[in-house]
Amino acid sequence: MSKRDELIAKYAADLSEKCGVSADMDLLTKVTIGCGPAIYNDDASTVSGTDEAELETVKQNFLVKKLGLSDSPALDAGIDAVMEKYGRSNRNKYRAVVYYLLTKHFNKEAVYG
């Protein structure tokens, strides 16, 4: 099993255990690949749910640039909903899991089609 496959399995387990979500493995794989080499870096592979600058980066670089959404208060609300679902007390919020949940939240699965 490759390192990426191991990480995807870990992300699927996180979705199941921490979010109560049964992962669409095809979409999760595509989102993980879309994260690029960041998934192999301990710092870059996670998202801090309390760091406003990092959440702004998620909004601009992922929601606006990748998913093609318009910047609006709805994006902040979506990020907030995903952080709540993932569990605010959970220290390790994997970037691929956050992006997967945001993709589902905004019904943008077609971006990865």
Describe this structure in words.
The longest helix has 17 residues, at 3-19. The protein has a single domain, classed as Recoverin, domain 1, CATH 1.10.238. The model has no long low-confidence stretch (mean pLDDT 96). 59% of the residues lie in helices and 0% in strands. It has helices at residues 3-19, 25-34, 52-66, 73-86, 95-105. The protein is mainly α and 113 residues long. Helix 1 packs across helix 2 (25-34), helix 2 packs across helix 5 and helix 4 (73-86) packs across helix 5 (95-105). The chain contains 5 helices and no strands.
Instruction: Count all strands and give the number.
Output: 0
Distance between the first and last residues' Cα: 25 Å
Main sheet characteristics = none
Judging from the principal axes of the Cα atoms, what is the shape? globular
CATH architecture: Orthogonal Bundle
Q: Low-confidence parts, pLDDT < 50 over ≥5 residues?
A: none
Mind sketching the topology for me?
Layout: H1 3-19, H2 25-34, H3 52-66, H4 73-86, H5 95-105
